[in-house]
Amino acid sequence: EIITNINNIIKDLTENSIRQFIQKLAWRERISPEKIQEILAAAFRDSYCRNGNEEAVLHFEFDHDLLVYRCYQIVNRVTNPQKEITKKSKLIKEGEVKNGVLFWPLNTKNFSFAASQEIKKHFLRDLQKIQKEKEHETYSPSLGQLVVGNLQSIERDYYLFDLGKGHGQKLTFLLEKMVEESTGHRIILTRNNELFLRKVLELEIPEIKEGIIVIRDILRFPGFITKIVIESRNPHLNAVGTCLGQDGLRLRSISQIIYPERIEIIKWKLLPEVGRYLGKKIIGQTWQ
């Protein structure tokens, strides 16, 4: 699930400590807590380091609250007021000095509403960018392959499936394509594609994947009936019997995956034209 609006972040930040917020967000978005901290720090820097603060050095601590310090090198003579300070500065008493560096705390609670919103927007943008990259890494290797999804809801023009470990009716699909959108990727699944059926057959019948049995034709009315015309390259192998499996086990497994679609296996005749004609004639009669 991708966070799609800034209100989710505001709600989480106001209801939880920063540590709880990071842990909750890391679990929900499946990103490490350290990465969430990096994104949050980068968002803060992008918003703060401008308008005369471009060279400001910031230090972050993630405890119950987010603690942000502006760091100044203590010098005898200041050449860069954005990064340096003298011992006589009034800021020395307001911060803590470590190894010649002043850690001056920024009061983040006094930030203007506009500044706070800007930080949250930067955070949302960077988080979505990371999530989109993670989505692409996760699902792009499965393009053109079978995936299992859990039915979540039925919308007006489409069905929504969860490809994780969610609950709901499980169905097998071909991951057809990924469409990049502003908040992530829309993953298009299909069961109508002929490649879907070929992948199912290869999954359940190794001889097809190995090329020992060749699919000569697929005659299909998606969702209703499919007739597979096959031929064995091994003259001693019964192609139809091999596809059916012992006691029809392989055929039942295929039928369960493509249910409610019925499937029949037809042997390719000696003359290809006859086999093709026979298959189309049979399926034509079925539709009638």
UniProtKB/TrEMBL annotation:
Gene Ontology cellular-component annotations: cytosol
Any GO BP annotation: DNA-templated transcription termination
TM helices/strands, residue ranges: none
Domain called Transcription factor NusA N-terminal: residue spans: 19-133
Domain Transcription factor NusA first KH, residue spans: 191-268
Record has Cytoplasm as a keyword: yes
Annotated keywords: Cytoplasm, RNA-binding, Transcription, Transcription regulation, Transcription termination
GO molecular function: DNA-binding transcription factor activity; RNA binding
Species: Racocetra fulgida
Highest taxon above the source species: Eukaryota
Protein name per the record: 12190_t:CDS:1
